[in-house]
Design brief:
The protein contains three helices and two strands; from the N terminus they run αββαα. The protein is an alpha+beta fold.
Length: 93
């Protein structure tokens, strides 16, 4: 089992064999979790976070739709945008 050393700025370098087994590349994001004295690093994607936020919106009912087509969705978007503009104008008047 490969060993790593904690550097002065609390950084560690993962050995090549570990990086290859985990299929890690420069710029990959890892989630660090501590359980007792055990530290686990799990590869993550920023998409995971965005999906979680989107699912939270769905659970809380902060969604619009479904739409029958892209045209219907755009028409609704334009309608809502015009309504918001009217509201803003009314507030400043």
């Amino acid at each position: 089992m490969p060993l790593v050393t904690i550097k002065t700025k609390y950084q560690v370098t993962l050995p090549t064999s570990v990086r290859r087994q985990a299929k890690l590349a420069v710029g990959d994001i890892l989630e660090a979790k501590v359980e007792g004295k055990k530290i686990t690093l799990t590869p993550k994607s920023l998409v995971d976070r965005e999906i979680a936020l989107a699912l939270e919106d769905v659970r809380k009912g902060r969604v619009i739709g479904p739409f029958t087509s892209a045209t219907a969705m755009l028409a609704d978007l334009h309608k809502r945008t015009a309504r918001e503009k009217r509201k803003r104008r009314a507030k400043t008047a």
